[in-house]
Write a structure and sequence with these properties.
Blueprint (H helix, E strand, L loop, with lengths): L7 E9 L2 H14 L17 E7 L7 E8 L8 H11 L10 E8 L11 H8 L9 H9 L2 E4 L5 H24 L14 E3 L4 E8 L18 H10 L5 H14 L3 H8 L6 E10 L9 E2 L23 E7 L10 E3 L15 H5 L3 E3 L6 E5 L3 E4 L13 E10 L18
Antiparallel strand pairs: 1-3, 1-4, 2-3, 5-13, 6-7, 7-8, 8-15, 9-14, 10-13, 10-15, 11-12, 11-14
Helix pairs in contact: 5-6, 6-7
């Protein structure tokens, strides 16, 4: 795989050594970002080296992972780019200082994001702080930088309980309809218009699909404009409130939720309106981990090597909001994210490196918390390790998906209806 148009390759290096030596190395890297540091065509002061980020290395002896890039190299072209990057890093150290051990972990065709300053715990703490607007400028900045944001207690009280009951009823109805067709949930791969398996004991059940585009918040231009497949799901399930009332309730939650001002600012300025889907993704005991993936493709440009390379990535065209209906944990599972990966399509396929680099963020949310992420962001569902049988716990997460009406979403459900209309 060749380097990008700028003729660069990213090299992620683990650096270990005395604290004072690592501090000197990072001072040298910070200097590369200072005004006037771009001494050559590569934009860096030493051999075209650029610094893209760092993450602390946990474990005995400390250390850090450094994401840097060098010019004129090719990904997978041998040891040349690795030697060049390590040589440029060593040139930043004091000549008679203590040694620093450098080990190359990864080479990639675009900047590899390391976002140690963005953590889920920090986002929840900041957004929940007294006097802060949880879905205000901080949220928009985090969404642009890391590709995700979270706030505590977005839905609660009677609304959350009603959503739980609605989803439980729809899931029970789907199980019964599948059993009536001889389809063993968790044993067979299936895709109906209203529900599909997502691997093992993981399922995706459509609750609402808005056919007509409208504003993100406020009343929809035409009541009852959901798609036939969502209407069939509601009618066939019987429903907690009846299909029409459930649809109206879901629309109201999706358009009056506290995150809607953020969604409107990010997606609502194109003049085409926004379409809405609501589903519940549920994983039962034994659900395996997913592969790293992005829900949607990159449409338009990706980010360059830095802000001087012609601008950043194209604006988001879709946002997804997760609201768990139960507290998430290591046992019942959660979703793992790689912050910053919404900027570059060339990172698809590099998901396995995320844990090696320590770049992942564990979405350990509580029931009613909300996490919004860019549809291009890489993530994966983690396994449900709770025991099977009567004591097993199902992990159910509501998914509110908003997208610009100019984007043609192709959700991978099937064509055959599971529920017959009443």
């Amino acid at each position: 795989m060749a380097a990008g148009a700028a003729g660069r390759v990213c090299v992620c290096v683990e650096a270990r050594g005395p604290a004072e030596a690592l501090e000197a190395l990072e001072r040298g890297l910070r200097a590369l970002r200072a005004p006037g540091a771009g001494a050559g065509p590569g934009g860096g002061a030493r051999g075209g080296l650029r610094w893209h980020g760092r993450a602390p290395r946990p474990g005995e002896g400390g250390g850090a992972v450094l994401s840097v890039s060098v010019a004129g190299a090719r990904v997978g072209g041998g040891a040349g780019e690795e030697e060049e990057a390590c040589g440029a890093l060593r040139a930043l150290l004091p000549p008679r200082g203590p040694p620093v051990e450098l080990e190359v972990l990864l080479t990639a065709p675009c900047p590899v994001p390391l976002c140690p300053d963005w953590t889920l715990e920090g986002a929840l703490r900041v957004s929940g702080a007294e006097g802060r607007a949880p879905w205000g400028p901080d949220a928009e900045a985090a969404l642009a930088d890391a590709g995700l944001f979270a706030a505590p207690g977005a839905l609660g009280g009677g609304t959350l309980e009603k959503l739980r009951e609605l989803c439980d009823g729809r899931i029970r109805a789907a199980d019964a309809a599948l059993a009536a067709r001889g389809v063993g949930a968790g044993e067979a791969t299936f895709a109906f218009r209203e529900v599909a398996s997502r691997g093992g004991q993981r399922f995706d059940l459509l609750l609402l699909e808005q056919e007509e585009a409208g504003a993100v918040s406020g009343p929809h231009p035409r009541e009852g404009s959901s798609s036939p497949r969502a209407a069939e799901a509601g009618a066939g399930a019987g429903g907690l409130l009846g299909a029409a009332a459930e649809e109206a309730f879901l629309q109201r939650v999706a358009r009056e939720a506290p995150w809607t001002p953020l969604v409107a600012r990010v997606l609502g300025g194109r003049g085409r309106g926004v379409r809405l889907w609501v589903s519940v993704v549920y994983s039962r005991p034994g659900a395996p981990p997913q592969e790293w993936h992005a829900d949607g493709p990159h449409v338009g440009r990706c980010a360059g090597w830095d802000s001087g390379d012609g601008g950043g990535e194209a604006p988001p065209y879709a946002l997804c909001v997760f609201v768990p209906l139960c507290d998430l944990s290591q046992e019942v599972g959660f979703t793992q994210f790689w912050p910053g990966t919404h900027r570059h399509d060339q990172l698809l396929g590099f998901g396995g490196a995320c844990e090696v680099l320590g770049a992942h963020c564990d979405g350990l949310l509580r029931a009613g918390d909300a996490l919004v992420y860019d549809y291009r962001l890489m993530h994966r569902g983690m396994p449900n390790r709770s025991p099977g049988g009567p004591g097993g716990r199902q992990r159910a997460i509501l998914q509110f998906f908003y997208h610009d009406a100019g984007y043609a979403e192709r959700r991978n459900y099937g064509d055959a209806a599971l529920f017959a209309r009443a």
